[in-house]
Amino acid sequence: MINPTNLSSFSASDELATGNFVSRRLFFLKHIQIIELFIALFVFIAIHSLRQKKHHGLPVWPVLGMLPSLVSGLRDNMYDWMTDIVINQNGTFLFKGPSFSSLNCVVTSDPRNIEHLLKTKFPNFPKGPFFRDTVRDLLGNGIFSADDETWQRQRKTASIEFHSAKFRQLTTESLLELVHSRLLPVLENSIKQSLTIDLQDILLRLTFDNVCMIAFGVDPGCLRPGLPEIPFAKAFEDATEATVLRFVTPTCIWKIMRYFNLGMEKKLKNSIKEVDEFADDVIRTRKKELSLQFDNNMSKKRSDLLTVFMGLKDEDGHPFSDRFLRDICVNFILAGRDTSSVALSWFFWLLHHNPMVEERILEEICGIVSEREEVKKGEYQSVIFRPEEIKKMDYLQAALSDALRLYPSVPVDHKEVVEDDIFPDGTILKKGTKVIYAIYAMGRMEGIWGKDCREFKPERWLRDGRFISESAYKFTAFNGGPRLCLGKDFAYYQMKFVAASVIYRYHVKVVENHPVEPKLALTMYMKHGLKVILSGRDESEIQKYLKTN
Ligand code: HEM
């Protein structure tokens, strides 16, 4: 028998359960609708964003802009990623960063636009306040970051100095000393001990020592036997790395970090302090030395940049401040410390894959030295190349230029628009726009270099066996216009001298399966260095080419 109380209680709970079930269903349905709505919205946004790819080169997402594509591009070779986009967009595209960032910019690899910004409308495209603000702590008012009169004054003085006979003598003598008393012994030692070496690291040490001799007139000794860690060199490297990080960090964040002395900003502050202490010490010592020279009327004068700028006055007739002298030297070290060494690293890597080019370089070198008396007598090893011999090495210069075309030491560079402008290709530029010129991409564009643009082919630089240079707006590795690299001639001399001295004596073989890819930095380093094994060149190889001449 059914108890009515039970019945009523049964139906009450049943009702409650049914009610719960219905409200749960409603609740669920509501959520399903919301989820469906979100999915539909997402699909709509995704389709809309992806459709923008056709027009803008990359999908444009709400709020994030093109950031997701940039992040995925950063995972692989960022420069190849950028190359594909500019090629698809006929040379120029507008990168839309997230709405909360300062990443919006125009990216171009069109030589007409490059000429417009580097030469025709040069005053309208300075480095700009964003760049200066980001690098100020390390570079101060030095040539690399300055614009207008501050830049012009340094450029003029340094340019006169770079073209003076005394300076040329300093650069050639210091390089000769470094190559013959440091580089070649280090390489020879690696053969004796059957060592694998990181050629990029060794070349970086060489050019750091060299540029410090040119800028400060002091030798830090990075390439001394045992390859010691030099605190100043380490501090300089840390300071540049931390400064580069600022470019990919929102400005307000790194400024807060700097204020509270946190993370990378703490590292930057400490390393700049060490760089400054080194610079202060050199400046103080040099001042003493110069005053002693003046007292003793000594005739032997130094010709490094620091000494030259110490002898000059500013526009008010006062000697330059110690801070300004420090800025000048630090900027030159930055400009010349790693550009030639990374170029040489890519060059040796390309040679490893193109033995025919190496043969032709060797043939050229042997042809040039075969006129020497000691070579005629069979003394090959003692050859020290003379400046006039280096000058004659056209094929080597062509090979280095083609390496720089494919792997420019400065893969991308940047400017800021002062007044509204229009590029020759029709791109509209608003005041304050950042412009990135993609130098790496330019070397890989069929429209600029022809169908074989991705091949390493020194012959493209030769006419009747002589090296012919290209327009700076087509081959932009050394920049162009009024801000053309000041060290270009010296860099070629340096690279040719080092390459010839090594190739004449050694085979350079890259270690099997050594991964080679560019690192994301201001300069195009090899991310994992360049691990190589050297072996001495057989005399018969030299003989072969000497006999034919
Ligand atoms: C393969 C070697 C080199 C390459 C590819 C190279 C490339 C460049 C590039 C692209 C710039 C323009 C940078 C910019 O304005 O953002 C530049 C500027 C400069 N380079 Fe070089 N460089 C090399 C070697 C050197 C060396 C060895 C020195 C000095 C010892 C040097 C001194 C300078 C200076 C002083 C500037 C600034 C010029 C100015 O703003 O007026 N460079 N270089």
Automatic annotation (TrEMBL):
<dbReference type="GO" id="GO:0016020">
    <property type="term" value="C:membrane"/>
</dbReference>
<keyword id="KW-0560">Oxidoreductase</keyword>
<dbReference type="InterPro" id="IPR017972">
    <property type="entry name" value="Cyt_P450_CS"/>
</dbReference>
<keyword id="KW-0349">Heme</keyword>
<keyword id="KW-0408">Iron</keyword>
<feature type="binding site" description="axial binding residue">
    <location>
        <position position="485"/>
    </location>
    <ligand>
        <name>heme</name>
    </ligand>
</feature>
<keyword id="KW-1133">Transmembrane helix</keyword>
<dbReference type="GO" id="GO:0005506">
    <property type="term" value="F:iron ion binding"/>
</dbReference>
<dbReference type="Pfam" id="PF00067">
    <property type="entry name" value="p450"/>
</dbReference>
<dbReference type="InterPro" id="IPR001128">
    <property type="entry name" value="Cyt_P450"/>
</dbReference>
<keyword id="KW-0503">Monooxygenase</keyword>
<dbReference type="GO" id="GO:0006629">
    <property type="term" value="P:lipid metabolic process"/>
</dbReference>
<dbReference type="InterPro" id="IPR036396">
    <property type="entry name" value="Cyt_P450_sf"/>
</dbReference>
<keyword id="KW-0472">Membrane</keyword>
<dbReference type="InterPro" id="IPR002401">
    <property type="entry name" value="Cyt_P450_E_grp-I"/>
</dbReference>
<dbReference type="GO" id="GO:0020037">
    <property type="term" value="F:heme binding"/>
</dbReference>
<dbReference type="GO" id="GO:0016705">
    <property type="term" value="F:oxidoreductase activity, acting on paired donors, with incorporation or reduction of molecular oxygen"/>
</dbReference>
<comment type="similarity">
    <text>Belongs to the cytochrome P450 family.</text>
</comment>
<dbReference type="GO" id="GO:0004497">
    <property type="term" value="F:monooxygenase activity"/>
</dbReference>
<keyword id="KW-0479">Metal-binding</keyword>
<protein>
    <recommendedName>
        <fullName>Cytochrome P450</fullName>
    </recommendedName>
</protein>
<keyword id="KW-0812">Transmembrane</keyword>
<feature type="transmembrane region" description="Helical">
    <location>
        <begin position="28"/>
        <end position="47"/>
    </location>
</feature>
